[in-house]
Fold these 2 entries.
Entry 1:
Amino acid sequence: MSTDHEYDSVALVPESIVRPFARAALLAALTGAVAFVSIPIPFSPAPLTLQVLFVFLAGLYLGPVWGSVSLLLYLTAGGAGAPIFAGGHAGIGHLFGKTGGFLWSYPIAAFVIGALVHGRTGFGFGSIDPTADETPSGGFFDSLEVRDPATVGLGRLVVALSVGTLIVYAIGAGYAMWLLSLSPVEAVAQFVAPFVIGEVLKMAATIALVRDGRYELS
Amino acid sequence: MLTYEPDETVAHALDPRAKLAFQVAFAVAAISRPALAPLGVLSLLALGVLLSANLSPPRVLFGYRYPFGILCLSVLIAAVTIGPPWIDLADGVRTAHAAYGVGLVLLVSAAYVRSTPVRHSRAAIQSLVPGTPGRLLGIGVSLVFRFVPVLRRDIGTIRDAMAARLGTERSATERAVVLSSRGLTRAFVRADRLSVALQARCFAWNPTLPPLSFARADGLVLLLSVVLVTVPLW
């Protein structure tokens, strides 16, 4: 019967999920909100856009699990019609379009960056559904721990961000190459080369943000 | 910019699940590089979809001028070769063929964006993705819709404050650092307030959603989707 649920007991969402989930949703919204921002770079054909920077920040500040959830929310909301893809576009068409590979790579990159930075502490084991487990404490989400990225060594940060960037561009350019029947050189010329300077600056900006004490992100 | 607009078109009346299935099926058909005849049928179908959502094709083309511009650039880059004969027509035509299909997919998704309110999308997501992940995805999507305008205003405020202090004279990296750290700080403060508010209001796994129901028209759309998925086999 359709009214059965009204008599079910309310299954409250535990705090260990609500807090990181709200942060993941807001980071997804922020990644969409900066879709309009572009900063001109001297001697570069493409301006600096901040979306990949927020992919980095999702992995760094939310960890591998919630970081990738955040970017999945970003993709789903954009597919459902929120104007949050580059240039304020929306719709499933963009997930299949020429830059679709870049979009799909975001959750993967955030996961890998989070895994490389937070190591084993970023993962936990247990039940994913708290309604299945009557004791919410001690579950999977309680065991997830995200360390302060400011305490992570510079080498580890550089490696994690470089691997994340490589994933974004390998999947993004690879998909465009397949979709539009381009040769590898053509794909690199259009989808990688114009953005190299911007990506290096974004990695520098992310490392400055993480390691600079002025920016308090508790 | 194309967003949801209330209306009483055929597309607005359809079940969001049928519309999602149709879009995915259409994408599968259009990006599989179909022959010219099926591509012509798909073009007519895309035109029909736009009209069913009361969208004029010129309006959509204008709204998507940048994605379409980049697609044209891809065709140009594919056609140009380094060294004689400089222009490889066959290569360009092959990419143009693929790019045309991608363009059609964008047109069809524009109709969904105009005809589907967020609460319908959320209900569709939660009925398609079972269990807790579906619920989290549904709630998260509505939160993203709700907070994008708020955070965009935050970003605007930060940019205005930077510009008033000659921030535009700073290096690109410094501007990116200030903008993203201030933006992230504000977003996380909002998120923490939101999580307290959610818990205060008994945020639960089992909320009440608008009921979705399949009508005859939705059945037809689903049937068409099944046909479209088989296009790559033709």
Entry 2:
Amino acid sequence: MAGNDLTRLRAHEMAAALRAGDVSARELLEASLARIRATDRPLHAWASLDEDGARDAAKAADRRLAAARGAGQEALAALPGLLGIPVALKDLVVTRGLPSTAGSRILGGFVGPYDAHIAERLAEAGAIVPGKTNMDEFAMGSSTEHSAWGPTSNPWDLTRVPGGSSGGSAAAVASYHVPLGIGTDTGGSIRQPAALCGVVGLKPTYGRVSRYGIIAFASSLDQIGPFGRDTRDAATLLQAIAGRDERDSTSAPIPVPDWSTELAANDDEAAGWLRGARIGLPRQYFVKGMEPGVEARVREAVAALESAGAIIVEVDLPHTDYGLATYYIIAPAEASANLARYDGVRFGYSEHEGDVLGNYLATRGRGFGAEVKRRIMLGTYALSAGYYDAFYLKAQKVRTLIKADFDAAFASVDALVAPTSPTVAFPLGARLDDPVAMYLSDACTLPVNIAGLPGLSVPCGLSDRLPVGLQFIGRAWDEGTLFHLGRAYEAITADAGWRRLDPADLGALEDPATPTPAERMAAHA
Amino acid sequence: MATLSRDDVAHVAHLARLGLTEEELTRLEGQLNHILDQYAVLAELDTEHIAPTAQTIELENILRADVVTPSLSVDEALAGAPERAGDHIVVPGIIAEYE
Amino acid sequence: MGAAAAGAPVAARYEAVIGIEIHVQLKTASKMFCGCSTDIKDAAPNSRTCPVCLGLPGTLPVINRRAVELVLATGIAIGATTPEFTRWDRKNYFYPDLPKGYQISQYDLPLAANGHLTFDTSDGPVTVGIRRAHLEEDTARLIHATDAAGRRVSLVDFNRSGMPLMEIVTEPDLRTGEQARRYAEELRLLLLAIGASDAAMEEGQMRVEANVSLRPVGTDAFGTRTEVKNMNSFRSVERAIAFEIERQARALGAGEVLVQETRGWDDDRGITYTMRIKEDSDDYRYFPEPDLPPLRADRAWLDAIRAGLPELPAARRARYRDELGLSAYDAAVLVGDPGATAVFEAALAAEPGLAPKAVANWVTGEYLRLAKGAGEGSGAGASGVDGAQLGRLVRLVADGAISGTNAKQVFERHALSGEPVDEIVADLGLAQISDRGALIGIIDEVLAANPGAVADVRAGKGQASGFLVGQVMKATRGQAQASVVQALLRERLGLD
């Protein structure tokens, strides 16, 4: 197969081709690297590449494949699903000997002496990591514009954002750089960029994936999850990284089902899963400021689910409107402590200005970007003497109410369906000077983090030629239902015309004259 | 809800050890107050008898056995240190003795 | 000096109110939240660190069960209550010795609360309320130095970072420096008994801080308090507090207004001095640690810990008095030194028939003389002492197999070398001859060789008897037991 054809394969197709001996892991990697080199300048999805390490891993994967082929069908079937498959890591996954910057100047030059839990798990599974992807600094943002290394563009329209904070991984998967990517989701940072880039993204139940080695934003909200070009691929990636890790005290000792095998069903079978499924439609998720095109696509998708036999039930999540304020107290408060370790003493960016206090002020004042400083300020204030009860404690109590809303809804439905983002991808720079408008991007996703639940975003069509995401929200530990619904929705819309459309600016990516996202932003400003 | 004065902003910046320019302080004063306005909705809710939720995961007593595992080498530990003297990390002198 | 102030008129108008905060390093193999070794005493700087205790990005804490259980055990030992649920909190402040920019500690739900401890003082027993005992992580060590360019620098060693630390806070129940010292000493004994800590103050394993304020005698309101630090021995605890009481009394007596501050103790100069106060000390922005689930200390867990507790110092003193018949003084001396306690117990265990008082005399006398002498560089030391061997020695003395004088000589050698006492006795030829058969032959020879003395004895001259005993002792090179020789002489002379 030719390079461009190889990069178009989904992960499960790559896995089949590797086992059949039609392609090698090395060929898949070289196709991926060639495409990244050829098209990433105008996209800027990647923060750093590790070509040598990836090649070594690909060679090892090919040896495992060869050995298994020699040992027969059973040995081939026992190979991990990700063996030889390229997977992008968000630039906040710490890996030994490689830079991990979390999109921040303050981590410029930081090279970790250890591997994150998920990096170990991916290596064991034989996945190939070509490099790390761009992101909003410390995952704080919804556009990937808040990266110290410059913004990332959306392959559907290079003048627009890919969403964020995991915009690099979403854009890389959408642009056929890699079939799979890792993101993190604290308030929507996987689901929202998945929606805006037209790919599948899942935020797992809090505690499903170990956070060990993931540079923290807000510890009680952060989760790590997959991007893929379909639900089955995303499930295969989650399966590889999920499960108890004794180094993360909040990772749960709950068994990880074999979703990958369950989802291998054909379209007819998958469509059948919708018959009798009880799905709640929360009234409050059709929020003010939602674009009519987005609402139309979501309601069409809900109608399609209903036609296929799902029972759609309108439900109330009455405290939804309090989610934004609750989130923007809890997340900055936790972040203000999590980011206190960036002090220029042991690693990373360091300014020397006189005494210890001078070093702190200069290092942190210049090392962090505007959005990070804003959130550290918010969080520090919310925890400070005299304000703790009014802000932090109050937000924790409202968190209880928001969680109770979901518990009540799940008493009568198996899952919820809602928009992922109230809008399609917005223009680069459009919301940079209005933090509150930016924060509203996550209005439909952040209540899910507040309650610790799983959420899946799948593409459900286009509005103004830009992708719209459909969000399924599930009970804690019930990613399985979300995956089944996502796969079923893919099955019933398999013939939809929009499914065959490539991101509109894919061609422009291949033109070396196309400006970089930073150049476009500078021109715009 | 509370309003932040410019002095408050400067105090919080000091608590957080963020060296901010005058321009940043000015911009943050406006932005933080705008964000605090959004928090005001929470006051509508009566939460007097609601228990706070710090974590959504219902785990308890996650403990490890008291077993020693290997440490990093000194060079690995100090590899990223901006300033090093022998096996120590160096910071400006901290006056902890007489005033 | 400070202690003199107790009698000064100005001090007599005030009552001191003292509360003590003690941090102790817990005796675990690994650190509080990571697997790095706590054996850092002779380790190279920064050789006992890992991504967790260096606070590197992406790392997470995992609680050391043993550290939790040592605090729970301490709580039980001081009669404290443990809430069913406790949790962890982040205490936020910036300092180069605090790698994460926050310390994982416990704020409003400590593992132990409302306990108490009773100890003896020169004025009788005193009970202090213990407000709380909680678990937290230690900070890195800072060494202050001047570099080659003459610049003042601080050198950071993260080996200590993340060591498990228990903070124990008393109520402001104490009134004198002596009480504070005695509280700290008694707490140390308790921690040693439990095995919670080695609690060596000079090693920094036990750090004592005192909050001291004065108020006019007969009033209840608290005065302005100072926090006194840098007291590196029990003696300096007493001296520093006595000095601070006197200093405050003089200041108040002179109409000065005291400031709330942290003061350091200068042991050489015998004074406290104003230390630089850590900034923002009143705004630590505590909030629940989201990286750690809460702890549930249920009854079964606490019962198991309670069942595993050894005999505690107070109970041991009572047993020595009530069951072994020792004096309160002997009991206090024996229990006050863990080495002495161990030697005493082992000696009695090896020789259960011995009179406890006899063993106690050896331990409080010879053993402690040698053990303490070693510390002051003037004695031989007692590092070789095996309690069971001391039991054997006391048995030999009690049986008359060796003289008391010779036994001390044997013990000194054993204390240094650890050799079994029987071997030392044999080596030195110190065994007493009390065997009738062995002595009769010698006595008959002496009688035959000294007919004049024999005649004198028969004539009733007492000194002549002493002469004959002396001749026998000479012939046996002192090994004959004098009382046996006396009796045999009278028998052979037909005087009985």
